Amino acid sequence: MAEKPLRRAAAIAVIRNPFAGSYVANIEGFMEDLKPLGLEMARQLVAALGGDAKAVEGYGKGAVVGSAGELEHGALWHVPGGYGMREVLGGAKAIVASTKKVGGPGTRLDVPITHINASYVRSHFDSMEVGVNDAPRADELLLALVMTTGARVHARVGGLKASEIKGEDGLC
Amino acid sequence: MKAKIRKIATFVEETQREMDREISPPARRAAAVAVIENPYAGKYVEDLSELMAIGEELGELLTARAVAALGIEGPAAESYGKAAAVGENGELEHAAAILHPKLGTPVRRVLGTGAALIPSSKKRGGMGVVLDIPLGHKDAAFVRSHFDGMEVRINDAPRANEIMVAIAVTDSGRPLARVGGLTKDQIKGEDGLR
Question: How far is B152 from B24, CA to CA, in rounded Å?
Fold first, then answer.
C-alpha cells in the first residue's frame, strides 16, 4: 500500500495554431496572449487535485504541434505555461520540466515532472503520459500542464528529499 | 552486476529544412536506447542497488554511442536528456533506480561538462510504447533555445520483464529558435541554471 495515494492531474488545451502553414519570423508576442490560458489551466489542475494549491508538489509542461506547424511553435508554451502554474501555486522556485514535439492526432506525450521548489528532489522525478485522440490536427497546438501531489509510490532510490529542501535557488 | 542487454538501438535525427527554410548546419540529435532484463521483475525488492549499478554502466555506454552517432567529441554536445520505460512486470521505481542515483556521472564524464540537471522522464508500458526524452542545455538549464524533446520507440520493447533505457544528446538547439529567453552565448556557467 502507498502511505498516501499519489495523485497526478493533466490539463490539456487544443487551440488553433495562428502560425500554421507558413514561416512567420516574429512569433514571440503570442506568449503573452497565452498567459490567461496558462492561468486557467493551472487553476483547473489545482481544482482537480482537491482545491488546495499547497497540496501540489510536482509539475511539468509540454506541447504537441500539428503537422502544419513548426517545432518552435511548441516553444511558445514555456513562458505562459510556467507563469500560470507559478501564479496559482504562489511562487514555485524550480524550473518547470518540459518537452515538445510535432505530431498527428492521437500523438502521445510524456510530460516530465519535477518538484516545484527544488529540481533535484529525487523522489519527485516522474512523468505523465497524455494525449487526445483527435488532436492536434494539422493547424492546431496541443498544450499540456501537469501537477502531482507527491513522490513516486514506493520511492526508494535515495537522493535529496522534499524535507531537506533549502529553497534558495530552485535546485536543492 | 552487469546489465543483461538484449539490444541497443541508436537513432539520429538531422533536420535539414523546417517550414521550408534551410537549416544550415542541420540540427542534429541522437538517442541511444538499451533494452535490458529487469532483475526485479515480478516481485517487490526493497534494495534496488543492482539497477543503480546498471544505470552507471549504461550512462557511459549509451552516451558514448549517442555521441559517436553524431560524429562529434563529447564536449561538442549541447543538450541532453534521459528516460526509461519499464515493462509491465516492473515498478516505475525501477526506472528511477537506473536514471537518478548513478547514471549522470558517466554521462558528464563522456561529455566533459554538464552543470545542468539532466532532464528526465519515465513510464511503464508495453512493447512499442512511445518514450519522450526531454532535452535541456547541458551547462545551463534555462537556455530557452534548447528546451526540446526526442521521441523514441522500439517495436518489440519493453517486454514484460524488460526495461528500455534511453539517453539523448544534440549538437544544436531547436531549428529556427526564436522565442527569446537565455541564449547559449550568454551562459555564465556557475550554477547549472544560467
Answer: 24
Question: Residue A172 domain-assigned?
Answer: no
Q: How many domains does chain A have?
A: 1
Q: Domain limits at B108?
A: 5-186
| Domain hosting residue A130, numbered range | 8-19+29-164
Tell me which chain A residue has its CA closest to the CA of residue B98: A157
Give the global pTM. 0.94
- Smallest CA–CA distance, residue B5 to chain A, in Å, is 22
Residues of B in contact with A31 (CB under 8 A): 179-180
Closest-CA distance, B179 to chain A, in angstroms, reads 5
Overall domain count for chain B: 1
Give B135-168 pLDDT, tens digit per residue: 999 999 999 999 999 999 999 999 999 999 999 9
Q: Which ipTM did the prediction report?
A: 0.90
**Cβ-based neighbours of A97, under 8 Å, separated by 6 or more:** A59, A60, A61, A111, A112, A113, A114, A119, B119, B134
> Residue A109: which H helix or E strand, with range?
strand A109-115
- Note whether B31 contacts A: Cβ–Cβ < 8 A: no
β-bridge partners, B87? none
pLDDT, one tens digit per residue, over A18-50 is 999 999 999 999 999 999 999 999 999 999 999
The Cα–Cα gap between A73 and A160 comes to: 35
